[in-house]
Amino acid sequence: MHLILLLVFFVSPAYAWLPLEDWGSGNVTSSVGGSGQCVCHVFLPDITFPANRVESVQISSNQLTVDVELHINKLISFKGQLVVLLEELSNLTIRLEVVESGPDKYIKLEFELLKIELRQFEALVTELKGSFNSSSPAFDSLYNEIHNMSIIVDQLESYDQSNLEVIRIEFAKLQKKLEKCRDDQDDFSNAQTGSCKHGGILRVGKPVVSQLNANLNTGYIYGGWGKDTKPLPGSENMYWYSASTNTQVRYITTYSDYYRLILRQSMKTYDLYTSKDWRGLGNNYIVRANVWYYQFSNPFSMAKYNLTSQTVAYRVVPMASSRFSYHYSANQNLDFATDEKGLWVTYATEESKGKLVLGRIDEEAFALSAVYETSVFKQSVTNAFMICGVLYVTRSVDIHKEEIFYTYDTNARKESYISIPFEKFQENYMYLDYNPTDQKLYMYNNGYYVSYNVKFKSA
């Protein structure tokens, strides 16, 4: 009998390369076949390397790489478009500001071009927001700005040329009326500007109401306005305005001339509270030679803020009390005034038992050079101002009328009681001062700019 040896292998491809001695005897069995042959069985576990899965991962990785590159290129493209958008949006903003600066500019605007550009901007911002698939405050703000511009353009387009011509004509008429009113008021004074060759105030003219304050808020009842009382060369027409909803003094805004004041087109706004706290209290301040004089908060003292250098200096007023204010408002303890003779401050002391004291300020030394005591109790007084070295003091008569009832002549050291009534625009006012450059009284009356012209007695 022939012995036939038959080896049957069940070998996984992963084991095909292993030598026989490394296969292990535990997986080898033998048996005798039906024909008497000897059959050996070798079993190896299937731990095949997952090549097909690796290939799938590689394909996915390559696809992701392509997708990332596409998104990067898309973001670069959007970045370029966004830069162009911001530049065009800036140009569009400038064009709209030109349009809004006056009615005569409306007809110069290409409305259709603007509307097309705005629609393009809206579409681009919407596309950007969708690409990032998230809400961004920057994109929302940009979109709202563009949408608001679209509304403005639609409103402006609703005006036709004839209507705009009517607006321009009426605007010109209003300007002429205002100029005539101011010219008529200028003729009211009968004394040469800067001269004291007169016998004092004879009467005060009607109140000239310019307009509501620059904040367009009737809540800004504490404040003042006027011209520089000793302007530097080139600033002869400059006006200033300062106001608040309380007695705190912080901001002052300047305007190149009266019409810029009316149009609320300011030159600069100064802030007393930046790196240092230079804020004050009250609202009886003046501007002289581009310096703002006001009541300092801490310490209680008189202060001057140089609008050119934006620096502050302050001096304590000897014996001045912070306990006595004017009748209409609290914290008006130091009241600055200026006239043809120079710079002054009124206040009260404990020693005077609340009676009004007048001090003359040496501007160079920024200190009092002379002091005058009056017999008027400060808390019964509504305000005071100086003309040619004479202190004029006011009081309330009723809701419509005010009265200059007292004077103190520093030249003769003589006081007197008089009666010069004048009208008020509204009942309470917080500011009243005289400007020697135009011989006008400037009043801040419940948030409104009010002025008066003065007629003097013959010398």
Describe this entry's structure for a reader.
The strands form six sheets. Strands 4, 5, 23, 24 and 25 form a five-stranded antiparallel sheet that branches. This protein has a five-stranded antiparallel sheet with strand order 8-11-12-13-14, with no helix packed on it. Strands 6-7-9-10 form a four-stranded antiparallel sheet. It folds into three domains: 5-43, no CATH class; 51-157, no CATH class; 191-456, Tachylectin-2, Chain A (5 Propeller), CATH 2.115.10. 27% of the residues lie in helices and 34% in strands. Mean pLDDT is 80; it is low at 1-18 and 103-109. The protein has five helices and 25 strands. The protein is an alpha+beta fold and 459 residues long.
Topology (elements, then pairings):
Blueprint: E1 5-10, E2 28-32, E3 38-43, H1 51-100, H2 111-132, H3 137-157, H4 161-186, E4 201-204, E5 208-212, E6 222-227, E7 239-244, E8 248-249, E9 251-255, H5 258-262, E10 268-271, E11 280-288, E12 291-296, E13 301-306, E14 311-315, E15 335-338, E16 343-348, E17 355-362, E18 367-377, E19 383-387, E20 390-396, E21 401-409, E22 414-423, E23 431-435, E24 440-445, E25 448-456
Parallel strand pairs: 1-3
Antiparallel strand pairs: 2-3, 4-25, 5-25, 6-7, 7-9, 8-11, 9-10, 11-12, 12-13, 13-14, 15-16, 16-17, 17-18, 19-20, 20-21, 21-22, 23-24, 24-25
